[in-house]
Design a protein that fits this description.
CATH class of the largest domain: Alpha Beta
Number of strands: 15
Strand order of the largest sheet: 4-10-9-8-7-5-6
Largest sheet: 7 strands, mixed
Radius of gyration: 23 Å
Shape: globular
CATH superfamily of the largest domain: Type I PLP-dependent aspartate aminotransferase-like (Major domain)
Number of domains: 2
Low-confidence stretches: none
Mean pLDDT: 95
CATH architecture of the largest domain: 3-Layer(aba) Sandwich
Helix content: 40-55%
Oligomer: single chain
Length: about 450
């Protein structure tokens, strides 16, 4: 009997929500149905998704930044097909692989010159776990410092550095000797480092939850203070890296040199799980300091040929298509265009970001009628107003977006880096139309708001 994925997909196409309700996370299905995101997608090309009616959607989430080169890029597909057809030896554990060496060389050519070693793993959270271990072993210190509202992953070690309580609640006890300080607060950082017991300070150059951008002197001072107190400076570039912010690495905006850079997400073009840690020679040589310690940390599927081939192809696509430059140019246009509308709309506070890591933040209005409507939503569930923007963006403008974090009035955009000027206009015009609708009271959009508030209140009572 022959096996065919195409036949399986066709035969069971209309059962995906039913299967998830029966066997997987049924709460996710409830969320999708409640907000009207329950679509059956049939195809994905570049920055676009297509449903069973062949409706085109502009994907402004890109798998939380995974599809930086767009979905199903033909160059990456060809690299994977070539790798499979060559019947290469793979994961020979008593060996080293050529493709991993080539990818490491290519990545290290992009990082600051103090980083010349690389460790591969399977995901961002694995990169964080590795960096925690490497920092503790290298410094012989236990304490790990991170920022409030940070996001570094959901496995136990990474969760210990997670600044959002909703992710941590009920999963303790977490790792000991992990503590948080406010982001962009140098006084708090120096106070925390001054005891000289901190192994590493983990920080996102731009915080993913909310797209919070630091002051221009923050990261240079982070580097200086970490050196002063013997703490390793770890830049979590899992979401911000590989061109997302209009520079290859977000740290390049501030010309700093961390001791480790964490990467994942976009590195394989979205096809194969991959993660990596770039580090100094000293960290690598300290952790793997003898032949009998050659295997003290690793991961079974890290350095697999498919991930390495996808990584090499992805980096080539980024270079050939000048995606970092496109991210800077198109992203700046989107931010400035939406920001220019703040004088028109009371609810619109600001658009901010770097490159194609963009936040559109909303605020309480001043006029009495709008203020009362805002208060109704906030009382039901903080951040609910954003759903009155994202749902119409999806249903009416065929644009996939999401709220930037729990309890925030921020919509976050992480589109593929290959979006065009036409897509830019689509985004700007759609946001303008959706925001304009929220200022019409009474109106159909506020009927949606009342329904959302009703659902939120019912959920609170459960």
């Amino acid at each position: 009997m022959s096996f065919s994925i195409a036949e399986l997909f066709s035969e069971h196409f209309d059962k995906k929500f039913e299967l998830h309700e029966q066997h997987l996370n049924n709460q996710m299905v409830r969320v999708l149905r409640t907000i009207g995101y329950d679509r059956n997608y049939t195809k994905a090309v570049g920055q676009y998704l297509y449903d069973e009616d062949n409706t085109e959607y502009l994907d402004l989430l890109s798998g939380f930044g995974v599809f930086a080169v767009g979905r199903n890029h033909p160059t990456v597909i060809q690299a994977l097909q070539d790798t499979l057809s060559m019947e290469l030896p793979n994961l020979i554990q008593m060996d080293v692989s050529l493709l991993s060496g080539l990818l490491a060389e290519k990545i290290l050519a992009t990082v600051p010159d103090n980083l010349n070693k690389l460790f591969f793993c399977n995901s961002g959270t694995e990169a964080v776990e590795a960096a925690i271990k490497f920092a503790r072993y290298t410094t012989k210190r236990e304490h790990i410092l991170h920022c409030e509202h940070s996001f570094h992953g959901l496995s136990l070690g990474a969760l210990s550095l997670n600044g959002e309580e909703i992710f941590r609640e009920g999963f303790g006890p977490l790792l000991p000797a992990c503590s948080a300080i406010p982001f962009n607060d140098l006084e708090a950082l120096e106070q925390a480092l001054s005891n000289k017991d901190v192994a590493a300070f983990f920080v996102e150059p731009i915080q993913g939850k909310g797209v919070n951008i630091p002051d221009d002197n923050y990261l240079p001072e982070v580097e200086r203070l970490c050196k002063k107190y013997g703490t390793l400076f770890v830049a979590d570039e899992i979401q911000t890296g590989l061109g997302r912010t209009g520079e290859f690495w977000a740290i390049d905006h501030w010309q700093v040199k961390p001791d480790m850079i964490l990467m994942a997400k976009a590195l394989s073009g979205g096809f194969i799980p991959i993660g990596a840690v770039a580090m100094t020679q000293n960290i690598m040589d300290t952790v793997f300091n003898r032949m009998d310690r050659a295997v003290v940390h690793g991961s079974t599927f890290s350095k697999n040929n498919m991930a390495m081939a996808a990584g090499l192809a992805t980096l080539q696509v980024m270079e050939d298509e000048k995606l970092v430059e496109n991210s800077a140019r198109i992203g700046n246009d989107i931010i400035n265009s939406i920001q220019a509308s703040t004088h028109k709309y009371e609810f619109l506070k600001e658009a901010r970001g770097k490159g194609l890591m963009i936040a559109v933040e909303f605020q309480a209005p001043k006029s009495l009628k709008l203020k009362a409507a805002w208060a109704m939503l906030e009382a039901a569930n903080k951040g609910l107003f954003c759903q009155m923007v994202t749902i119409p963006l999806f249903k009416d403008h065929h644009m996939l977006t999401q709220v930037a974090g729990h309890g925030m009035n921020v919509v976050k955009l992480l589109p593929p880096l290959n979006i065009t000027s036409k897509d830019r206009d689509w985004i700007v015009d759609s946001f303008d139309a959706a925001i304009a609708e929220t200022h019409k009271i009474p109106g159909s959009i506020w009927d949606l708001g009342k329904n959302l508030a009703s659902h939120a209140i019912k959920n609170k009572k459960k």
